[in-house]
Amino acid sequence: MNPTIQQIRQDLDANVDQHTKESAKRYFKEAIKVYGVKTADVGRIAKEHWTRVKILPKQEIFELCEELYKSGYMEEAFIVSDWMPRYINNLQASDIATFRRWIDTYISNWAECDGFCNHTIGDLIDKFPEIVPEVKSWAKSQNRWMKRASAVSFILPARRGEYLAEAFEICDVLLMDGGDLVQKGYGWLLKEESRQHTKEVYDYVVAHRKTMPRTALRYAIELMPKELKDEAMKRD
Fold it and tell me: Can you tell me the mean pLDDT for 28-35?
């Protein structure tokens, strides 16, 4: 085993908290693998090891990340999500192919999906807008985490009012998806776009309210004034 991976796992083992472990298992609908380490401790461990990892060649860093993902443990996935935004200045547009494979192969719950996509993919979109069509295409995947990833990767740009047309295109594809975590993902995207584009998002929701699942609709209108919420919730 790689010495860095071995040390990370020893550090995680040394910080196991049984209450955290049991709470995590109750919190997720999916079966999850967790050490039971508090989020703050995972972040501290990730940061401590990054000081040594960041000087390695890029391919070695990616290999370490993949080894962490292969374990299936949520905390190890969170370490990847901590490291990659720190490495953004060394990433290239072509790295989206590696990240797509990681999401498609290893991501197994919404927390891993959001933790990686909000910042790593979101930052990559900021740096390389040419990857936007690739990320949008994930909405057509058969993998629910890829579908959620297509939406939540745009959360931070959406908060700034960016990529509204692309957000609507993603939502068009995901609109009737039966997965509640996919619905919550694109509903969240609409909610963030509504911060800067309340009217446009409201109009989109009203135009689709007869077919949009209520879960997604409620997320989308969360930040709107009460009168708009009430109108949007009407079915006729």
Answer: 91
Q: pLDDT value at position 30? A: 84
Q: What is the CATH number of domain 1-90?
A: 1.25.10.90
Q: For the stretch 10-43, what's the b/e string if a residue is b when 16 or more beta carbons lie within 10 angstroms of its beta carbon?
A: ebbeebeeeebeeebeeeeeeebebbbbeeebbe
Identical topology for domains 1-90 and 108-236 = yes
- For the domain made up of 108-236, give the CATH fold: Leucine-rich Repeat Variant (1.25.10)
Q: Residues 105-114: pLDDT tens digits?
A: 999 999 999 9
- Using alpha carbons only, what angle is made at residue 213 by residues 211 and 214, rounded to the nearest 5 degrees? 120
Residue 153 per-residue DSSP state: T
> Which is nearest to 50 in space by CA: 74, 78, 71, 72?
78
Q: What confidence category does residue 236 fall into, taking pLDDT thresholds of 50, 70 and 90?
A: low
* Residues 30 and 70 sit within 8 Å (Cβ to Cβ): no
Residue 31 to residue 231: CA distance in whole angstroms: 38
